[in-house]
Design a protein that fits this description.
CATH topology of the largest domain: Rossmann fold
CATH class of the largest domain: Alpha Beta
Shape: globular
Distance between the termini: 45 Å
Bound molecules: coenzyme A, adenosine monophosphate
Helix content: 25-40%
Structural class: alpha/beta
């Protein structure tokens, strides 16, 4: 079918407010908006100002009221523990009503923050929805972060309550969450009133008297007393959640998501981008700790009346590289969303796709990839093996949904490998030079979005309007700076090529090299350091640290390097995948003292580079080259 994309995009451009007002008809509001868009509110305007609503009601209650009560809302499939459980919409409603009542019973009210530090178990999604139900603002922290990272988030969000589980499970090891949480709370200045803990059989967490509560006991007592929480009306512009993401310093940015705009954009995306109908099974193989998990494991599929899958496993090793196909076939998945790195891992284990042949994938229609640039090899491999279209799409924690993608529901556009396709309605993408002028078609520059941003995008950073403006709005007045560089071709296809800041993308996880440098600099023997992201065949990028030791340090270099690796794992977490620290005599710098990280990265990746005109001492680049060669790089 011919794509309606151009017509729809044009209709948005002609009249954005009518476009989003129409999309908003799919949401149940307890009071409609006074203004679809209020340009005078917030940093760049606010969507659905004056409207009142509840996100949990739209995700759960209304589907039960309208006959979807017996449909599966959530399927928990955990190959890592060998268990499965399905929740119908009615059962999910009972869970969120009860958990909402438990939280209210302990004094959690509208506007209070609740940290959710949980593995991929159904209780994590139930926790998010229960918070939404009572108007509390959740902040989910990914399980692969260490105590210090969790403490930073606790100090910024100041949660009244923390919801957690005794452990997460990684291949070959049980990660006990409770000691990490206890350490984080002891490190933070802000102390939550209570901790609600879900005991899992793989680890029994010890409880602190007077603070810690047992999930099952609390739920049972609320049930026996018949306590259920009603949906609390919130303003469309009230925060639904805060999700911390890497910024250019060690202090993460608290991305705020509102209730109204988020629901409208996410609901629109389910049919128009992912082309699924209510009732179909939609699977995002990610983690609730990331934005993909928030938007496409929890909120969007449920808003749209789909069945979502909570998958606790890995693409390989749980038990093998056929697990994705098993899940697709067993649960009749229509559309799947994951990161390219997962497919690279599967391709490495099963290059000929032999395991696919064991499964009936006849219900499967489309694969969507995001989180990092989808390399053409991976896309083509997946297309060939799965015999379905594979689409890359580009978005950020800040937006919560696609900036550029292929809107399959409007009729897919031809794929150009290496491009996530075109701007979605809501996004007026411009490629700018340093002076904020548009560059000619095909030329690379800073990918920017003309303000206002569409619904769902962050209105600000948590209690930090100044940092929001400085980080995103200041460099290019009138635009949102994505911090991605790239170009747009003559057909309007967007190409996202690199970050313009110190963020790297490791296995689809966004990490700050600046944050790692801050940690490494605390090692007593380190005088200075630089962390770069080196190309990696599996993870896309991996971090590499270069350290200059204090003069007079005469310990074994290998020992210091191992300590630095351990330090990053302890302070940031295993998710940083920081395994390579190299002592070097000096770091290459410009005459004004700026470390030439870009040049170091090119050397590590074996790319050609121009000698920077401002380099202080070119010999240092030879020293770096020699150290890298000694470690087998470029690979
Ligand atoms: N809790 C605790 N530790 C965790 C964790 C969690 N939730 N998630 C990951 N880790 C640990 C891993 O065990 C690993 O530890 P190790 O250094 O002791 O081996 C480390 O963090 C790095 O994890 P990861 O980068 O995920 O590497 P991996 O080798 O375990 O797995 C892939 C590689 C490709 C299979 C995996 O990264 C993957 O499935 N990626 C999908 C990406 C994704 O979902 N992205 C979200 C955006 S769509
Ligand atoms: P996150 O906020 O963790 O989702 O990471 C967002 C960043 O990941 C973007 O700014 C990009 O740098 C990168 N990214 C995500 N999806 C894509 C994609 N499809 N193509 C290229 N880069 C991507």
């Amino acid at each position: 079918m011919a794509s309606r994309y151009h017509e729809v995009y044009e209709s948005w451009k002609q009249d954005p407010e009518s476009f989003w007002a129409k999309a908003a008809e799919k949401i149940d509001w307890s009071k409609p908006a006074d203004k679809v868009f209020d340009p005078d509110a917030g940093a760049y305007g606010r969507w659905f100002a004056g409207a009142m609503c509840n996100t949990c009601y739209n995700c759960v209650d209304r589907h039960v009221e309208r006959g979807r009560g017996d449909q599966a809302a959530m399927i928990y499939d955990s190959p890592i523990t060998g268990s499965q459980k399905t929740y119908t919409y009615s059962e999910l409603l009972d869970e969120v009503q009860t958990l909402g009542a438990v939280l209210q019973g302990h004094g959690v009210e509208k506007g209070d923050r609740v940290i959710v530090y949980m593995p991929m178990i159904p209780e994590a999604a139930i926790a998010m929805l229960a918070c939404a139900r009572i108007g509390a603002i959740h902040s989910v922290v990914f399980g692969g972060f260490a105590a210090a990272e969790l403490a930073t988030r606790i100090d910024d969000a100041k949660p009244k309550f923390v919801l957690t589980a005794s452990c997460g499970i990684e291949p070959g090891r049980v990660v006990e969450y409770k000691p990490l949480l206890d350490e984080a709370i002891s490190l933070s200045k802000s102390k939550p009133d209570g901790v609600l803990l879900c005991q899992r059989e793989q680890a029994n967490a010890s409880m602190i008297e007077g603070r810690d509560l047992d999930w099952d006991e609390e739920m049972a007592s609320a049930r026996s007393e018949g306590r259920k929480a009603d949906c609390v009306d919130v303003a469309a512009t009230d925060p639904l959640y805060i999700l911390y993401t890497s910024g250019t310093t060690g202090i993460p940015k608290g991305v705020v998501r509102d209730n109204g705009g988020h629901m409208v954009a996410l609901h629109w995306s389910m049919k128009n981008i992912y082309d699924v109908e209510p009732g179909e099974v939609y699977w995002a193989a990610s983690d609730v700790g990331w934005v993909v998990g928030h938007s496409y494991i929890v909120y969007a599929p449920l808003l749209h009346g789909n069945t979502t899958i909570i998958f606790e496993g890995k693409p390989i090793g749980t038990p093998d590289a056929g697990v994705f196909w098993r899940v697709i076939s067993e649960h009749k998945v229509a559309a799947m969303f994951t990161a390219p790195t997962a497919f690279r891992a599967i391709k490495k284990e099963d290059p000929e796709g032999k395991l696919i042949k064991d499964y009936d994938l006849s219900n499967f229609r489309t694969l969507f990839l995001a989180g990092e640039r989808a390399d053409p090899d991976t896309i083509q491999w997946a297309e060939k093996q799965l015999e379905v279209p594979v689409y890359d799409h580009w978005w950020q924690t800040e937006t919560g949904w696609t900036i550029a993608g292929n809107p399959v529901g409007l009729g897919a556009l031809p794929v150009k490998y290496g491009s996530p396709t075109v701007a979605m309605p809501g996004y007026d993408i411009k490629i700018l030079d340093d002076q904020c002028n548009e560059v000619p078609t095909g030329e690379t520059g800073a990918i920017s979005v003309k303000l206002p941003l569409p619904p769902s995008c962050l209105p600000t950073l948590w209690q930090n309007d100044e940092r929001f403006k400085e980080s995103y709005l200041q460099d290019f007045p009138g635009y949102y700076m994505t911090s991605d560089a790239g170009f747009v071709d003559e057909d309007g296809y967007v190409y996202v090529m690199a970050r313009t800041d110190d963020i790297i993308n490791v296995a689809g996880h966004r990490l700050s090299t600046g944050g790692m440098e801050e940690v490494i600099a605390t090692h007593p023997d380190v005088a200075e350091c630089a962390v770069i992201g080196m190309a990696d065949k599996l993870k896309g990028q991996i971090p590499a640290g270069f350290i200059v030791l204090n003069s007079g340090v005469d310990r074994e270099m290998g020992d210091i390097e191992s300590e630095v690796v351990k330090l990053v794992r302890e302070k940031i977490g295993p998710v940083a995948a920081f395994k390579l620290a190299m002592a070097v005599p000096r770091l290459p710098k410009t005459r004004s003292g700026k470390i030439l990280r870009g040049t170091m990265r090119k050397i590590a990746d074996g790319e050609e580079f121009k000698m920077p005109a401002t380099i202080d001492d070119p010999v240092i680049l030879d020293e770096i080259t020699d150290v890298l060669k000694g470690r087998g790089y470029p690979a």
